[in-house]
Amino acid sequence: MSRQLAGDFKVFEDPKNAGFVTQRHLETMSKDTNLPSEVKEFAQELLSRETLFDKLDSDGNKWLDNKISEQSIQDSIAQQRQAKPERRAQMPWPGGEFPFRQSAVKLES
Predict the structure, then answer these.
(1) Are strands 67-69 and 20-22 parallel, antiparallel or unpaired?
(2) 3 state SS for 25-71
(3) Residue 99 has what pLDDT?
């Protein structure tokens, strides 16, 4: 959701607070019947995810002012990347070997 907001920042930017997406503007957008349903639904979803909104709203000092900057979104995305553990290919069983070994069988005729 953070990446989508970063990509569409100008769509959700508050015209009264340039450079910020504000809670007040998202609330207005979520009720605006002239906006496309996707825009309204995204605004509603972001508002409903209070933890995410607060994370995007806070600066390095955890200051909350109901405004999200482009920089705070980029910071959040960077933190998410750092928090994800490196994915390694996993073998289907421990040791990476089949659970059985075929032995050579000498057939007698």
Answers:
(1) antiparallel
(2) HHHHHHHCCCCCHHHHHHHHHHHHCHHHHHHHHCCCCCCCCCEEEHH
(3) 47
> 75 is in which domain, residue-wise?
2-83
Cα–Cα distances (Å) from 60 to 19, 64, 66, in that order, read 18, 10, 15
Output the domain CATH number for residue 51. 1.10.238
Q: Would you say residue 70 lies in a domain? A: yes
CA distances from 34 to 9, 29, 38, 40, 106 (A): 19, 9, 12, 10, 80
User: Under a CB-based contact definition with an 8 Å cutoff, are residues 11 and 38 in contact?
Assistant: no
pLDDT digits (tens, 9 = 90+) for 56-86: 887 666 677 889 999 989 988 888 888 766 5
The model's pTM is 0.70
Q: For the chain, how many structural domains are there in total?
A: 1
